[in-house]
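Possible regression after last week's pipeline update?

I re-ran a chain I had predicted before the update to compare outputs. Posting the input and the new output here so someone can diff against the archived version. Not blocking, just want to make sure nothing changed silently.
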Amino acid sequence: MPMLKLDKPLNKCRILVTNDDGINAPGLKVLEKIAKSLSKDVWVVAPEQNQSGSAHSLTLRNPLRLREVSKQRYAVDGTPTDCVLLAVNHLLKDSPPDFVLSGVNRGANMAEDVTYSGTIAAAMEGTLLGLPSIALSQAIAWKHAPRWSSAEEHGPDVVRKLLAAGWPEGVLMNVNFPDAGAKSVQGLKLTRQGQRKISSAVQEGKDPYGQPYFWVGLIRTKETPKGGTDLEAVADGFISITPIRLDLTDKATLTALKTALA
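New output (post-update):
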């Protein structure tokens, strides 16, 4: 199987940085620092507004606008997927990026989160375009401010190790940093995607004009699935690295159905 590996030294690479929390997000600044510690050729293309929960969505019914914020920093009035597409196919088409970094998300992206996350989606789009892509997220507890030092100090080494190892085409790397100060991080763990029991919470209210509105959220159980999951590793203070394959086919079921429906 073909591998996604760099064909040049890391410090000579062009890096595309994006996120789903928006161009002004603190986590994006953290990721820019991580990227600039690896190479000087860093380009940022991120959404104008927070796009959390946008998943792998494209803007198809409205035109997109690309705004230059500062040198090699751009904002797009669209989704994280839009950002990667515009960056690779338009802005940097004459000299494409060598790899994509997405994040650092404010909040973990583990278990079922990967299906909702715009951070993961940006890395998905980079992967579909044939680029090594890594999604990075910082677990948080709402009782205190995000401990960005965890990602900021350990992020460069994690990215270096992953890019040096390489991985198959059609796979992205999902990295989650624990809610801990940099010195309290226990190390790295390679993990599988966990699963939690969730239910949708719909809160109904009325706006100042008396019209009803609905606010959708998710309620997650606090249990931590064991057996090498991303949830377990991060809860134990480790950095979780989960390879995510874009091919969602359940091959065992496919084989069984071929026999059953023959």
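Follow-up from reviewer: compared with the archived run. The domain at 3-195+224-260 is CATH 3.40.1210.10 (Stationary-phase Survival Protein Sure Homolog; Chain: A,). Marking as no regression found.
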